[in-house]
Protein backbone atom coordinates (compact mmCIF):
# COMPACT_ATOMS: atom_id res chain seq x y z
CA UNK A 1 0.00 0.00 0.00
CA UNK A 2 2.31 2.70 -1.18
CA UNK A 3 1.37 5.93 -2.78
CA UNK A 4 3.61 8.14 -4.83
CA UNK A 5 1.70 11.24 -3.94
CA UNK A 6 4.25 12.44 -1.42
CA UNK A 7 7.32 11.12 -3.18
CA UNK A 8 9.77 13.89 -4.05
CA UNK A 9 10.07 14.22 -7.78
CA UNK A 10 12.70 15.80 -9.94
CA UNK A 11 11.59 17.27 -13.22
CA UNK A 12 13.85 16.27 -16.07
CA UNK A 13 13.28 17.86 -19.42
CA UNK A 14 13.38 15.25 -22.16
CA UNK A 15 12.79 16.96 -25.45
CA UNK A 16 13.69 13.72 -27.20
CA UNK A 17 10.78 11.79 -25.74
CA UNK A 18 7.23 12.09 -26.97
CA UNK A 19 4.37 11.94 -24.46
CA UNK A 20 1.79 9.19 -24.88
CA UNK A 21 -1.91 9.77 -24.31
CA UNK A 22 -3.08 7.70 -21.32
CA UNK A 23 -6.44 7.20 -22.98
CA UNK A 24 -5.72 6.12 -26.55
CA UNK A 25 -1.97 5.32 -26.24
CA UNK A 26 -1.14 7.53 -29.19
CA UNK A 27 2.17 9.33 -29.23
CA UNK A 28 1.62 13.04 -28.93
CA UNK A 29 4.16 15.27 -30.66
CA UNK A 30 1.74 18.03 -29.77
CA UNK A 31 -0.96 18.53 -27.17
CA UNK A 32 -3.99 20.71 -27.65
CA UNK A 33 -4.98 23.32 -25.16
CA UNK A 34 -7.83 25.75 -25.00
CA UNK A 35 -9.58 28.05 -22.61
CA UNK A 36 -12.38 26.19 -20.89
CA UNK A 37 -15.87 27.57 -21.37
CA UNK A 38 -18.70 27.66 -18.95
CA UNK A 39 -19.14 28.22 -15.25
CA UNK A 40 -16.18 26.06 -14.29
CA UNK A 41 -13.64 27.45 -16.69
CA UNK A 42 -13.77 31.19 -16.37
CA UNK A 43 -10.32 32.42 -15.45
CA UNK A 44 -9.04 28.94 -14.74
CA UNK A 45 -6.31 28.87 -17.35
CA UNK A 46 -6.13 26.14 -19.96
CA UNK A 47 -7.47 22.67 -20.39
CA UNK A 48 -5.08 20.28 -22.11
CA UNK A 49 -6.41 17.46 -24.22
CA UNK A 50 -5.37 14.81 -26.69
CA UNK A 51 -5.60 15.82 -30.37
CA UNK A 52 -6.63 12.27 -31.28
CA UNK A 53 -9.28 11.21 -28.79
CA UNK A 54 -9.84 14.70 -27.34
CA UNK A 55 -9.94 13.36 -23.83
CA UNK A 56 -8.77 15.81 -21.22
CA UNK A 57 -5.34 15.14 -19.76
CA UNK A 58 -5.12 17.99 -17.33
CA UNK A 59 -5.48 21.61 -16.50
CA UNK A 60 -2.88 24.30 -16.30
CA UNK A 61 -2.58 27.95 -15.51
CA UNK A 62 -0.29 28.69 -18.42
CA UNK A 63 0.91 27.24 -21.67
CA UNK A 64 4.29 25.99 -20.60
CA UNK A 65 4.53 25.47 -16.85
CA UNK A 66 8.26 24.80 -16.97
CA UNK A 67 11.01 26.85 -15.38
CA UNK A 68 13.26 28.47 -17.93
ZN1 LIG B 1 -5.79 10.22 -26.74
What does this protein look like?
With 68 residues, the protein is mainly β. A three-stranded antiparallel beta sheet has the order 1-2-3, with no helix packed on it. It contains no helices and three strands. It has one domain. The relative contact order is 0.21. The chain is globular, with a radius of gyration of 14 Å. A hairpin with a 6-residue loop joins strand 2 and strand 3. It binds zinc ion (ZN). Zinc ion binds next to loops.
Write the layout of secondary structure elements.
Blueprint: E1 32-34, E2 46-49, E3 56-60
Antiparallel strand pairs: 1-2, 2-3
Residues 21, 23-24, 26, 50, 52-53, 55 line the site of zinc ion (ZN).
Summarize the structure.
The protein is an all-beta fold and 68 residues long.
Integer average pLDDT: 79
Spatial separation of the terminal alpha carbons = 36 Å
Report the bound ligands by name, code or SMILES.
Answer: zinc ion
Give the overall shape, derived from the CA principal axes: globular
Gyration radius from CA atoms, angstroms: 14 Å
Query: How many beta-strand elements?
Result: 3
Largest sheet: 3 strands, antiparallel
Order of helices and strands: EEE
- Counted by DSSP, the helix tally is 0
From the structure above, extract its key features.
68 residues; mainly beta; globular; binds zinc ion
Amino acid sequence: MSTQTDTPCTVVRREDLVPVCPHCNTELPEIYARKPKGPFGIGRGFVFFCPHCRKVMGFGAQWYPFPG
